[in-house]
Structure formats: C-alpha cells, structure tokens
C-alpha cells in the first residue's frame, strides 16, 4: 500500500493552522520557513485528546522570523503532523498510517504477523518527528 501524504502536506497544513493565528505564509520562502518550524518544533502527540485538554502554555514555543517578528506556536506543533493518522483533516479519504500498517500486516500469514509487528522500520523525513514510533506502537 502507498500513501500520498508526506512532509510537504504537513508543512502545508501547518501553514493553514498558523494562518488561523494570523500569520500568513504564502511565498516559497515563507513556506520554507514553515517547513523549518515543523522540523524544529513539530511532534506527534501520543494521545491527542489528552494533549488538547492540557493548557497550551507548556507546549508553546516561540520562533523568530527573518524579519524579527516572533510567532508563538502551541497546539499547531502536534496538530500539523496529526494528518499522518487522520488524513481527513486535509480532506483525504484514506486510512491513517497506523491503519495502513495494521491492514497490511493483517493480510499476511498469521504465523508471520508477530514478527512483522516486531520489525517495523520507519524511514523518511516524517519519521524524524519526535513521538512517531511511540504513537504507532500505541495505535497498533
């Protein structure tokens, strides 16, 4: 199975979330800033509902833009990457990463499934997001 959802999509969705906070990133250079913000501050929440219930202050991070303006990011830090688990957030009708893994392994011989679950290898840029491995383990 293949999912056409990657870091670029997370960056675009993060730009949308930041736009809701009043920060407009539209040019190529500005989108590159959003990519850097994602790489530096983005993470995968282990439990999104618990994370959303917490006060935003402990997770807030400040980022200084090249023009000296400072933006503050809170829940956007984990809401952007959440599209890996809930593609419907960006209008895609497909399973999240965890369900794709589960469905793929479920199609294999039952005797192999335990070994397959024990040997999942994450690669690519999105695999560098803190918390991804823990979240996949929890979801699977």
What does this molecule look like?
With 140 residues, this protein is mostly helical. The chain contains 7 helices and 2 strands. It has helices at residues 7-20, 28-41, 48-53, 76-79, 97-106, 110-118, 132-139, and strands at 61-64, 70-73. Strands 1-2 form a two-stranded antiparallel ribbon. Strand 1 and strand 2 (70-73) form a beta hairpin. Helix 1 packs across helix 2. The longest helix is centred in the first third of the chain and has 14 residues, at 7-20. It starts with 6 loop residues before the first helix and ends with a helix. The mean pLDDT is 91.
What is the overall shape? elongated
Task: Report the end-to-end length measured between terminal Cα atoms.
Answer: 17 Å
Q: Could you tell me the strand content as a percent range?
A: 5-15%
Summarize the biggest pleated sheet.
2 strands, antiparallel
